[in-house]
Structures are given as structure tokens and as C-alpha cells.
Amino acid sequence: MRHPDTISETPAPEAPATSRRALLRGLGMASVGAAALAAGCARTEAVAAPATAPVVPPVDKSMAILGANESPFGPSPKAVSAMIEKAAMTARYADGEGEELKKQIAAIEGVAPDQVFLANGSAPILQAFGEMIAQKGKGQLVTSEATYEGVPRAVKQYEAELVLTKLTPEFKVDLDAMLAKVSSKTTATYVCNPNNPTGNMVAPVKLKAFAIEASKTAPCFIDEAYLHLCDDYDANVMTSLVREGHNVVICRTFSKIYGMAGQRLGYGIALPELAQTMGMVTRGGGVNHAGIVAAMASIDDKEFVPTMRPKFKAGRDRLYAVAKELGRPIAADPQASFVFFDVGMPHKEFAEKMKAEGVKVVGRTWAGYDTWTRICVGEDWEMDRCEAAMRKVLA
User: Fold this and answer.
1) How much of the chain, in percent, has pLDDT values that exceed 90?
2) pLDDT value at 46 more than 80
């Protein structure tokens, strides 16, 4: 499955005829670097670190890639070293290492290891949850318009009911409107926070109150893929809801601030029974070894996230300032790795004009926002080119 941000338009696929196992196995194919392939298949007790540092490939500056919400700053150097050191172990399933990562996450989040489940990125978690709540077409998901499509797409694939609420005038998820739509038919609610594509957040007090009330009816899924990028992580993290025993699922990914979009690793936190059910589905034939060791090393690198956070903030503040200066309506207070604003023309036309200037932006839109686009943070040279292109195209 291709990530939706890497394709121009995401067609509505028909309900698949494949089994759950076959579907999720296809979702979780992880990349394996050349170092892993060269290392061979033999199990060894210890693998020596390479004598020389890996060669860094030259940067291709033919196109500034600002559409897929990847980290332009890359993973932790400790994560890269860990993947190289353990490359030969990719010949073996990573069950043991996976259990160690779950313990590591559980210790940080204050939950039990059996409340943590892993997947090859967060996409398999979103897909599996969507399939589960669809209940063979009889389920109902309540969520917002202009939000991440993972769970809503899966619900539609399995022909269940999708109930969407409007954004607030400030382009935020309207939790009051969502709660008003929850009924005995509802089998789940979904909140992406910070929201993708708008980038803004809901107040933590309101989100917690919403989740507690909504989860009395059905599981409340809170997607925190971008939470590490926000200005105040501690005030907005919702893991306490799981610790308090509420029927809430928290989903995270190492694809964003940890810079591992191409090395798939994601995880969820839920009550033990639901975590076990989700974990049996999302791990499929196993979670990728290189991703697990990179994730453990990333978490151990205590300086990495504090170093990355201001870089993303500086980038989104720059994009926001340019859009505002050009007089474009914009979703205020972005807290993720991108900004969402009205370009005053069909999004396809804007994307084509930006591409002609050497800048690739997201090639699709969200229902009701056909003249809006989302641009994410890039490297300095990408930001320079993007700003120049925006000033030219939107002049």
C-alpha cells in the first residue's frame, strides 16, 4: 500500500476480497537497506560495528519534496548505527526485540507491556482498526471532515457508515459536534491530534472530556502521529486515558519526528484485551527487525527529539508567515510538520505550477477544500525554493 501523501489522488477502492491476514501482510512490507542484504543470513551472537561510516548519498536537488510529511532531517545517528550493527539479524524474526521495545515504551508511558502493540508503521494499525469497527458493514465511525484518511478509508472499504462533522470556523476538529453524533449505532470515534491536514490541535481538557464520554459507547481512537512536534507535548499526550481504564486507543509512529518514514515502525496503546486483539492482527508475519532496533535506539537518544522539535517549528513558522504575507486564508496555530492554507485556485493547478518551479506539494485535496493545500517542512534549500515558488505562483 502506498502512503496517500505520495500519490496524486487516492481513489476509493472497492471492498477487498482478500483475508485479513493477506491484507495486513501486504500493508507491512518494510524496507531493507543494502547493508542488511550484504550482511548475509547467518545468526550471530554479536555483530561488530563497521570500521568505516556509511557513505551518505548525494542530495538530489532536482525537486523539493514538500508533500509527504516526511522528516527532512533524518533519523537519529544512533538509530542508523543500530540498524547497521544489527543488519545480519534481519534474517531472523524480531519477536524478542519486539517484546523489549514494548517494555521500553510501556515504561515511558506508565502502562503494562501487554497494553502496547507494534506494527510496520501506523498504517496497518489504522487499517486494522477500521476493519474491526466496520463489523462487516454494520459499524459506524464518527469523525471529522478534513482529517487523516486511514481509519475512515478502511471503514468505507468495508462498507460501514462514515459520519463526518464540519470543522470549526478556526479549522479545528469540532469535538462537540462529533459527540452529538455518537449514538448506539456508533462503533468507534477517531480524532487525529494534531490534525492532518489542518495541523492544529484541540484543547487537551476538551479532548480528554470527549474521549471519556465517547468511549462509554465505543472505542475512541486518538492518532498522535505528530504529537512530538507540538509546542507542549506533556500537556497534550492522552496516554493517561488508557491508564485510567477508558476504552481509548492511542496510536503513534516513528515516521515523523523520528525520521523513519522509509523504515516502517508504529505502535498502539490500549486496554490489554483490545491491545492483544490488535497486536495479533497488526504484527502479521512479524514486525521489521531494523525498524525495531532503530526505534529502541531513537528512544534511548534523549537529545534527539528536543533537537528536532525547534527545527520543525522554525520551518512551519516560516511557511505560515509567507502564506499570511501573501494574504492567504490559513488554518491557524499549526503544531505539526506542515501548514494548510487556501491557494485561491484548484489544488491540482497549484500543484502543477509549483512543480514547474521545482517544488512538489501534496497532489490531492480533502472534500470541501478543493482550493486548499498542505505544505510540509523541508531542508533549508527546499524551503528557500518553496518560498520563492509561492511568491511567484500566488502573486
Assistant:
1) 79
2) no
Domains of the chain: 20-25+79-300 (3.40.640.10), 304-393 (3.90.1150.10)
* pLDDT category of residue 283 using cuts at 50, 70 and 90: confident
Sole residue written with cell 504575507: 325
**In degrees rounded to 5, what are phi and psi of residue 90?**
-65, -10
How do residues 60-92 score in pLDDT, each as one tens digit?
A: 899 999 999 999 999 999 999 999 999 988 889
Judge whether 328 and 394 are in contact, CB under 8 Å: yes
pLDDT of residue 90: 87
Q: Which three cell numbers stand for residue 143?
A: 469523525
- Give the burial class of 345: count Cβ atoms within 10 A of its Cβ; 0-12 exposed, 13-18 middle, 19 or more buried: middle
Q: Rounded to the nearest 10 degrees, what angle do helices 272-282 and 123-134 cross at?
A: 110
Q: Mean of the pLDDT values across residues 191-198?
A: 98
Is the link from the previous residue into 194 a cis peptide, with omega within 30 of 0? yes
SS (H, E, C) the chain: CCCHHHCCCCCCCCCCCCCHHHHHHHHCCCCCCHHHHHCCCCCCCCCCCCCCCCCCCCCCCCCEECCCCCCCCCCCHHHHHHHHHCHHHHHCCCHHHHHHHHHHHHHHHCCCHHHEEEECCCHHHHHHHHHHHHCCCCCEEEEECCCCCHHHHHHHHCCCEEEEECCCCCCCCCHHHHHHHCCCCCCEEEEECCCCCCCCCCCHHHHHHHHHHHCCCCCEEEECCCHHHCCCHHHHCCHHHHHCCCCEEEEEECCCCCCCCCCCCEEEECCHHHHHHHHHHHCCCCCCHHHHHHHHHHHHCCCHHHHHHHHHHHHHHHHHHHHHHCCCCECCCCCCCEEEEECCCCHHHHHHHHHHCCEECCCCCCCCCCCEEEEECCCHHHHHHHHHHHHHHCC
pTM score, two decimals?
Answer: 0.85
What is the mean pLDDT of the segment spanning 202-218?
98
Instruction: Provide the pLDDT confidence category of residue 365 given band limits of 50, 70 and 90.
Output: confident
